[in-house]
Amino acid sequence: MMSLPPARRFDWSNLAIRVASATVLVPAVLGAVWFADYPGLSWLFLVLVAVAVALLAIEWGAMTAPHAPIRVSTALTVAILAGAFLAHSGHMPLAWGAAALGALAAALVARGVAERPTNAAFGVIYLAIPVICLVWLRWMPEGRQWTVLLFVVAWAADIAAFAVGSALKGPKLWPKFSPNKTWSGFIGGLIAAAGAGVAMAAFSDIVLSLQAGALIGLVGGLATMAGDLWESMLKRRFGVKDSGDLIPGHGGLLDRVDGLMFAAVVLAAARLINHLGWAN
User: Fold this and answer.
1) Which pTM does this prediction carry?
2) Where are the alpha helices (DSSP H) in the chain?
């Protein structure tokens, strides 16, 4: 059997652009997460979420309904933010119900203006689930620490997968949908994510054993790369290279947070298990 060709050569110029973008974005995100516990500053995190939802909805509308992107993206934004604000208020059953109803409403809004109205409904579900999980995670006890853990694990997996895969190359992971991802990057990302989980358990005030930190990091890293591959498949389906061009070196916001979205669901599940008494 013919072996798969290695991934393309390491792109140092792209790495420089990525680092510059991260220098701006990372402090803003972590600042909103960290200072939301301070009196009068809880709005910071909600503003971050609201802006991200609006931008993601715009990208989804442009990608799936190019003839009526504003109409579709508006429907997505309203539906997802309804779920997010209900989750912030502690009404989780209502938040999930709002997401389900919002998906149905988005499909109805997209009828006649989108080739497949179900893409609007799927967009609500695809974006609302991780958003609601993220909001719930942030406002749980130890929410600041767990949310930082989420970002650290996802970023570690993403950065290590890109760097290790670009440097070592080797066989490709899933060339049909993502021709530049390699098995070396996949393994490097998992190791980095597990290490990030251990580091958070060891050096932060989060209540986790080292073993639990490693396991959460490993599963979170796996979810991060699964989310990245899933979005690559979606982009191939819709015939686009990037979800947008918002972030230099990364493409659209969805290109940047696709893995984080899957990781948010996994970390929320881990937090729920931890809240019930595991890994304390």
Assistant:
1) 0.89
2) 12-35, 43-64, 69-88, 92-110, 118-139, 143-168, 183-203, 210-238, 253-275
